[in-house]
Amino acid sequence: MAEQAKKKKSNKEWLDWLKAILIAFSLAFIVRTFLFAPVVVEGPSMLPTLHNGDQLIVNKFIYDVKKPERFDIVVFHASTEKDFIKRIIGLPGEHVEVKDNILYINGEEVEQNYLNDQQGIQTELPIYTNDFILEDLPGNYQEIPENYVLVLGDNRENSTDSRVLGLVPMDQIVGKTSLLYWPMERMQLIRK
């Protein structure tokens, strides 16, 4: 009898462990699929803000509860095989133009402090953006349509962004970057 009770207790412990492991894997799957995901920056297109190899957490549900904002840094599906990280510059209903390295939204000048101010330190690197107007981009739009955004890399001279790809549909946006967690010395919450 005692032997049978021990066996039952041992089986119950194994079942409890198995349940705990299955619950942990299920929760991890749900969090990674629907809430947050890690992403690694590839290339120099977001310098000086993000560096090649930086590891970030992407908030995948934020745009289910609020609209994107200008200067959010987002991850989106650029193709079926590749995701890109860029900054939202233009929102639905807006006209975007860059002339003489100045960003204009609906004809009004907009500051882009993030281009030369990294963590409160002015950089000496001049950031240059070739002149363009929204009508010059793929799609030839007069204004950004509903459910689309215009994105640019911070390193404007070396970025494949809306100037090449066209406007990005909201349903292709994976999420907003929220935390840079690696390398440790650059750990920070991502701000605009």
Automatic annotation (TrEMBL):
Show the stretches that span the lipid bilayer: 20-41
Q: What's a single GO BP term from this record?
A: signal peptide processing
- Tell me what topology the record assigns in the membrane: Single-pass type II membrane protein
> Which PROSITE patterns does the entry mention?
SPASE_I_2, SPASE_I_3
Please indicate if the UniProt record lists Hydrolase as a keyword: yes
Q: What is its EC number?
A: 3.4.21.89
Report the domain of life of the source organism: Bacteria
UniProt keyword annotation of Phosphoprotein present? no
Enzyme kind, highest EC tier = hydrolase
Can you name this protein?
Signal peptidase I
Any Gene Ontology CC annotation: plasma membrane
Q: Which residues form the Peptidase S26 domain?
A: 14-182
Subcellular localization:
Cell membrane; Membrane
UniProt similarity note: Belongs to the peptidase S26 family.
**What is the predominant subcellular site recorded for this chain?**
membrane
Active site at 45, 86
